[in-house]
Input
Amino acid sequence: MAYQGSMKIKGSSTAAAATISASNFGRAHFVRVQSQAAANTITLKNASGTTLGTLILVTAGDSIIIEKEETDTIASSGNAVGSAVSSPR
Output
């Protein structure tokens, strides 16, 4: 389901048709991730590489806004795009 709220875009999007590889998105606190693949596992890790949590975006087009610490990184198991955003409203 598409996100229906409002947010400010705070940075460039990652490349389409590629996985997200351990990005902190310019030290952003909020990151919007949209899956381009089914059963895409999104992983949040802290600066030392410890996994803080995972979730699965079930179908292509699913999206989520993740709140994180500046140094935390996000990675995806399949193709996805992500960008830094403001706190959702």
